[in-house]
Predict the 3D structure of the following.
Amino acid sequence: MKKRRDKGKMEKKQDEILEEKVDTEEETAANKPEAEAAAEAPAEEVNAEKEDPAQKALDEANAKAAEYLQLAQRVQADFENFRRRNETVRADAYADGRKDVAAVMLPVLDNLERAVEAAAGSQDEALKNGVEMVLKQMTDAYGKLDVKPIDRLGEKFDPNLENAILQGNEEDGEPGTVCQVLQKGYMIGDKVLRHAMVKVVPE
């Protein structure tokens, strides 16, 4: 009886030892991937440390290149805007200068036309031809500046082009039309250089 009890105790002890062994093996197996990962991690970190300086330098170089490209594009855009503004300012300045010169010389043109009318009844052909020649040169110069007279005799009065300073009679023409030009008006391009002074038939 005693032998049987001892045998049972021994078997129980063996079972406990076997269970401990199995638990230890399972624990070891479970911890193995972690141990392997821990062993591999330092190697990967070392490789990353080796690659980092070159990659960092490359990233910095790329960032600098992108920055310089943006700066160059901005400078080029600013220069194009500056060039266009200068061209516009120069064209406007030229147009204003041309207009001012043409306006200042209009009284001279008026006097030359009056001189031609006065010389028409003169017996002095040289004088008449000389004044006509000067008037032609003046009108040619105005033509080169794109200056044209406003000639709207008999047409409907337009306050954008003419100043009505006298009122005509019904027999002078259609109501609301220009019946006489007292002083010529002129256009420069599509702008009024000087309004014409006219006599208008009342409506």
